Amino acid sequence: MRNEVCICSLIPSIRNKTPVTVIMHHREFHKTTNTARIACLALQNSEIRLHGLKDKTQVLREQKILTEPSYQPILLTLNERSEVLTPEFVRRLDRPPHLIVPDGNWRQAGKMGKRITDLQNIPWVKLPPGPQSRYRLRHEHDPQGLSTLEAMARALGLIENSAIQVQLEQIFEIMVDRTLSTRPKIADKSSEWVGKN
Question: pTM here?
Fold first, then answer.
């Protein structure tokens, strides 16, 4: 982000009990519109692993992310095989969850569960229906599509508490508003801000 709209000093420090691992497509890492990096700066118990780099095909196996006996890894992905994530689902797990979140554009993120072999034998979950995304920096064709930060916020709201969700969504709104303030205003039918991909 440009210096005059930087949000670094506003990012909260959140003590989340649930470990969060973001599997980020390597082409996403340097994009200024990426939201996963902001979420991981806020969440103390989180990390980013890059996917798609040469010689780094086993990003999860090498770090033993899926074999840690204290946690049950679950993949957050919008797929027909995904079970709806609810507090009841979490209570049925025999171990506390470790949230695995794919990050990239819609196509990249959607394919990670199928392309990364290690993810195919863990539970897949999706969010229950909720408000449409407020991510106005990229266009999303699927009405259920959310930015990675929004998805992480809602998931942790269900797994832990709503306070985490609120804090993440607040910094998300500031990031979106400030980014849009640096873009030229393009007139459309509703006279709203329009962001480019």
Answer: 0.84
